[in-house]
Amino acid sequence: MDDTTFAVLGTGGIGRRTLDVARHKDGLTPVAACDRNGVAIDHQGLDVDELLDATEGNIASGPDEASGDTPATPTSDYASDGGAAAAEGATAGGGVKQAGEGAGIVASEQGEPTDAPIDDVIAESDAIDAVLLALPNLEHDFIPRIAERFADASYEGVLVDVLKRSRVIGMLDDREEALVESGITFVCGAGATPGFLTGAAALAAQSFVEVEEVKIWWGVGLKSGYEDNRGTVREDIAHLDGYDVETAREMSEGEIEALVDEHDGVLEFRDMEHADDVLLERAGICDAEDVTVGGVLDVRSDEKPTTTTVRVTGRTFDGERGTNAFELDDATSMEANVNGPALGYLKAAVLRNRAGDYGVYGPAEIMPSF
Amino acid sequence: MDDTTFAVLGTGGIGRRTLDVARHKDGLTPVAACDRNGVAIDHQGLDVDELLDATEGNIASGPDEASGDTPATPTSDYASDGGAAAAEGATAGGGVKQAGEGAGIVASEQGEPTDAPIDDVIAESDAIDAVLLALPNLEHDFIPRIAERFADASYEGVLVDVLKRSRVIGMLDDREEALVESGITFVCGAGATPGFLTGAAALAAQSFVEVEEVKIWWGVGLKSGYEDNRGTVREDIAHLDGYDVETAREMSEGEIEALVDEHDGVLEFRDMEHADDVLLERAGICDAEDVTVGGVLDVRSDEKPTTTTVRVTGRTFDGERGTNAFELDDATSMEANVNGPALGYLKAAVLRNRAGDYGVYGPAEIMPSF
Q: For the modification Allysine, which residues carry it (chains A, B) (predicted)?
């Protein structure tokens, strides 16, 4: 496979770590990165060391002027891992927030100030194989509308997000015709979950001709990241018994703290509404209703309160029933489990794109097709 | 993805089960099958029910007249699973052996007698996306020479084998130029192991930027299949302390029985020489020397004597060390774990082929590229 050039939209937590992790991977060349204030483009490959050093703790956030959107409450990127949030309102950004003209990517010697960072990347996209959308979470249709802008510019290549909002998938589907016409292969939810864990489910399903049940169970320890993730914790609360999205949204900070105290900082979630089910059904692994997602979030420890596992139960062609299991070591951080898979799916999607497979895909569809 | 048409060369155990399992999969249409005496071709799709019924317990074996090769001792296909054999001399065939003019595929109303079954399939290969090579194991270079014949005919498509002989990979590599020129994507070792288990290792490696160790450990229970697998058991003996390929080859049946008795029917293998290591290195997952393969074979029980597991230890980008694990349920038979993955990799390889990626690949290379 040839070298893959890619851009990162957004240089918050996930964007920065994507650039960081890509240094360890073969065949991946970052050629563009942008945040709300600036853009850095070098088709020979960005100097990632310089870019990360220059922007450390200096992340531009706030309204994305290029898009004209108003940001939701910035939370953090753990939403992309472990299933810790239904993820409406969670952001792919994170990190230390700074504002002002000198903030973010323009602090790098590779960065140029701009009023239209995304348009600037789109203008150069002929030479970009793939674009990772690591943008702060704004409105529900923010990512789909970004995709639309690439399609309007007749971009032929890969777009990848690391979110997990079921709702976004439908919105992308609504735009599939335009994506296909442009030649875009869009992979949604390519982080830890749904990404990594539905991929594991697709693999584990290989023993079976019929999958009866997929159980995804995650653990996230969030002590040091708690302050940055209050918004996501709020959304997770919507999954607790007796709560829903509306009631969780209306709670005061004090009420949330009281609830967290009541649970000694450990929140357990069962039967979460999560994109994993939709994506596994799309990949032909099983029916969405056969997928259950749950997990435990501990906001008072960085240790995972439970081990992240994927268990796939099915029937073999010779009539046996069994359960294959995939288990992540507790020592693997949510960040590690987001960024490695995201880049893996990105590279795999480039192959799909070159094969002429355009449209909207879930991560499990990018696996060997069963 | 469009429908994938495929052919099966060989209708022994793996070939028949491939046709069987394909009935449960979407988007796979078997259009050709052959054995040494006959060929069945229908570009609209074979009637698999009829074909399997007509040939049940009626498998043509013996020298493949089309190839002019002399077969090695026929053993059985468990060699393709669980790592139970280094697999020199193991066959992909198996099942009840019969000979004579009416044996095998010609007993089906779809079968036609032929002196050159493989050439007959090659003649129709313009309309065949992929070919699964489920041929009895003959000489070491038998499969590579079949590949060569497809290349000579300018076949553009996918060839898949389910063997695991390190040696064969090198022989295919030697022919890679011709394969690439023809437009062939060859996936070698796409059964349970290396196929399924190296794929699991590639997935489990996604948390890490550096993989330090991959441990593959398999269990196979072979009571009812023992008689058909004596040849493979002989080869496994070569992996025991104090034995090698030559000494194992020279043992009499009585000596082997005595050895099996001495171990109460349970043979444990450590540090097997196995293609998994080479294939994981090719896929960029780790160095070959960091891969260990072992397992336990019980010839007196059909229960697996130990659970098949893949353990991948690595270092995350944020400096942690962890071990991710993949575990197959003991109830999943070796056959289930060969044929599901083989068809999965076959479909994935068709995408590679359409993307213009020709040459020789291991299964882990067909996974999302990390």
A: 164
* Residue B239 is a catalytic residue: yes
Task: Give the structural domain span for A277.
Answer: 195-331
- B224 and B289 assigned to the same domain: yes
Q: Are residues A252 and A322 in the same domain?
A: yes
First to last CA, chain A: 23
Task: Provide the CATH number for the domain around residue B179.
Answer: 3.40.50.720
Q: Is B235 a catalytic residue?
A: yes
Task: Please give, rounded to a whole number of angstroms, the shortest distance from the CA of A279 to a CA of chain B.
Answer: 16
Residues of chain B neighbouring A284 (CB-CB closer than 8 A): 26
> Considering the domain boundaries, does residue B158 fall inside one?
yes
Is position B200 within any domain?
no
Angstrom distance (rounded) from CA A145 to CA A69 = 11
With DSSP H G I counted as helix, E B as strand and the rest as coil, what are the percentages for chain A, rounded to 5?
40, 20, 40
Query: At a CB cut-off of 8 Å and minimum separation 6, what does A158 contact?
Result: A129, A130, A131, A184, A185, A186, A187, A346, A349, A350, A352, A353
Please give the average pLDDT of every successive group of 10 residues along chain A, which has 370 residues: 87 88 90 94 96 77 39 32 30 44 85 95 97 79 93 97 80 94 95 91 94 95 76 78 84 93 93 86 92 93 95 95 97 89 92 90 77
Write the CATH number for B300: 3.30.360
Give the total number of structural domains in chain A: 2
Tell me the C-alpha distance between B171 and B181, whole Å.
17
Residues of B with CB below 8 A from A209's CB?
A: 21, 24-25, 340
Both A53 and A147 in one domain: the answer is yes
Residue numbers in B near A323 (CB within 8 A): 329
Judge whether A334 and A304 are in contact, CB under 8 Å: no
Q: ipTM exceeding 0.90? A: no
Compute the CA torsion angle B78, B83, B86, B87 (nearest 10 deg): 20
